[in-house]
Amino acid sequence: MDEDRFRLRIRYQKAGRLKYLSHLETIRCLERCIRRAGLPFMVSQGFSPHMRTAFGWALPVGVAGLDEYVDVLISEYIEIPVVLSMFDGVMPLGMEILDAWYVDPRSKSLEETFPYSRYEFVIEACPVETAAGNQDLENEGSNGASSENGDFLERLENGLDVVLERGQMVVHRKKKDKIVVFDKLLCGKPELSYMQDGSVKMEMTTFTEGKGSLRPDLFVAEILREVPGARVRSISRVEQRSA
Amino acid sequence: MKNNGERSLWARVEPLLLKCERPTRYIDSEFGAVHDPDASYRFVLIYPDVYEVGLPNQGHAILYRIINSMDGACAERAYVPWTDMAQCMREENIPLYSLESFEPLLNSDVVGFTLQHELCYTNILEALDLAGIPFLAKDRADDCPLVVAGGPVVYNCEPMAPVFDAVMVGEGEEVITEFVHTHMEMRDKGCTRAQIVRELANIPGVYVPSLYDEEPGSNPTIVHPAVDGVPAVVEKRVLANFDEQSPQAIPIVPFGELVHDRLAVEILRGCSRGCRFCQAGMTYRPVRERPADSIVAATLDGLERTGYDEVSLTSLSSTDHSQIEEVLRRLDAAVDGKGVQVSLPSQRLDGFGVKMAHLAAGSKKGGLTFAPEAGTQRLRDIINKNVTEDDLFEAISAAFDAGWRRLKLYFMLGLPFETDEDVLGIVSLANRAYAYAKDCVPDKERGNVRLTISCSIFVPKPQTPFQWCGQVTMEEAQRKVDLIRNGHLHKGIDFNWHDPRTSLIEGVFSRGGRELYPLVQRAWENGCTFDAWSDKFDMDSWMSAADELGIDMQQIASKEFEIGAPLPWDHISAGVNQKFLALEYKRARNGELTPDCTFESCTGCGVCQDLGVDISLGGSRG
Prior knowledge:
The complex is a heterodimer.
Chain A lengths: L5 E9 L8 H15 L15 E3 L8 E11 L5 H7 L8 E9 L6 H4 L2 E10 L9 H5 L12 H15 L1 E4 L6 E4 L4 E9 L5 E8 L8 H9 L5 E12 L2
Parallel strand pairs in A: 3-10
Antiparallel strand pairs in A: 1-3, 1-4, 2-3, 5-9, 5-10, 6-7, 8-9
Chain B lengths: L9 H8 L23 E7 L3 H4 L3 H11 L4 E7 L3 H9 L18 E5 L6 H11 L14 E5 L15 E3 L3 H17 L4 H8 L5 E2 L4 E3 L8 E3 L8 E2 L27 E4 L1 E2 L9 H5 L4 E2 L2 H15 L3 E5 L9 H12 L5 E3 L7 H11 L5 E7 L3 H6 L6 H14 L3 E8 L6 H21 L9 E8 L16 H12 L7 E5 L2 H12 L5 H9 L13 H11 L3 H6 L13 E2 L4 H12 L17 H5 L11
Parallel strand pairs in B: 1-2, 1-3, 3-4, 4-5, 9-19, 10-13, 13-14, 15-16, 16-17, 17-18
Antiparallel strand pairs in B: 5-6, 7-8, 11-12
């Protein structure tokens, strides 16, 4: 029944203060933007009609997204430049429409289309006392902490190696803890490099499918548990891709 | 000039966000929020509860827009940080800030609290403490912001009177601009705090507690003007041309889910059904309706501009609007196919009420709530709740025919002149309603019928015909609850009731005077905040606060006043005259009904004459 509908793929970014939006808040926010823009969106049938949208893999709260997507079904064809101009003045600060195009209504979902996510982390040095904000984390599991004066990037590199060596990490959840095996989820070794201001950039790519995913915020926290005097300044998903 | 980007606390707040629940409470940036860094005068509107409770408040939205439209002035918002954030802020020594500029409240010109209910009092102290603003008006220096208040509780906010530099009584639309103009001008002239508040007291509707002296030996405390020229009775402000004004409904669109997460369009103000227990029914008179054209236009415009997918047509009794059917039909046609839900906040208890609810709900039917308020006709007549059992059964029949399967009936316990028979009348009425509802649906759907009975404990409110009555004791309230629990309510009916302990606190602060301020402060010192949240309410801390101060809370709440005796709230008036209230009390005792003046003739409450305002209807009612 959707063959005569138009599936519009919108690429957007969620940055600045809006990186604190949860996935549900992001969905609600964008749907309200689409309504304010006045796009002729389709509405589902049934008891509780709602806008026909589909989103990709969720971002954790606190992680910015610079290459995010939403698909929305609309009932009439509108030229892309017009679509883009419809969003002028209806977006909250931090949320921005970057591009849009039409895709085949029968094509794969956003989740299937973009299983790969590339993340960038900025990690900075900080006084050890406030490193994790969580004293018990500092006292335990920081056997390598003696090399505190060493090169910052080197220390991070070591911390990363320790974590990768384990091949897995424990994710604490409300009901029961879960073990996440890096294996397929992590694509290649994360790369570290200095930035101009002395902080370190880490880049990594993850693969997500139905069952498992590697949360970037938890992964970097796992590394920093091994590296006293380091904290995360920012995490961004900078790219989503199909291969 | 108090705004300065460098004073923004954002960089210090941001590291706390991931340690707290729902960070979007604290980040501003919502669509519709207005930040004016050039304004020289900043009025912080603060709602004394958490963000998702405060943001939907319509009074706030109205004042926010009015102040922001004034030259040189800006309004900003603040809410009480949830306990996790409050703890983080104290640890990091970060003062309470307003959202738009992230500047400390201490740098603003006015901090204005909305008083929605009495259970917010400890949160006001919590906010002031986090802001570093002295609790008592008399302790504030000239450069400290004014701390003011407005909202439904002002009809007796005496227990918090020592906190407020000024209180605005009644509808805020006009008084707020007069207030801001006067304050701004005097501030620029370099006037002292004392000079400023004295001048503010000349604005009609502005009550300055420090200009009223306590009558020696009075208990509860009675106050009288302490200086020449301030009014012995401060009368509420009322908007005469309400019907001509477009609903200022364009709110800030939040990220997180709110308690009322929808566009609200105020379609009428006031209700003169005359329920004798209802404070809002007495204090928001007279009834003024907005015309259908204006409601429909404002609703469609509001939906378009906010992107909300739900709109509520709000008022005290929306189905009483003379054009409600026309409004609903026009809106249904206009939003067809857009996935927009139209809702009414309350249902009139009759077939027409259900018809309107059906028009609004369309195919999406959750539950329906009716409020018979009392279990017997005798008691319903005493409270002037003009509904009969026939009305209820007609409404139930209409509701279940239309497809509803879940129904909630709302009652009060501890009403004046209530007997055990009236309490057990709730059980009887509920059982019959349940059986009747089951008879209204096809056999195979009978299992889906759900009935809930919800009881609250009556709090006698100032400025109502029951203002002279005492509240039932906690023990008596509990006994009444137990009467129902043990009263053979059908096992298919759910029964829930309001905690008599929170009702007692509400009763204490509804009925007491200035002498109670120390109780609020001691309770806050003992750790009380968010008293309206059942999981945060801490009766033991309240009890020990009262014990430490030698206060008998039960006695205060249960105290009866002689008609004609001075009352702690006598110096504030909602325009309904005391003679009318006393007459209504007498009629209550006799079980005599008083009609609604928007359906029949004037009942002589005095509002229209005293305040110079008329009832205005879009069409004819009844």
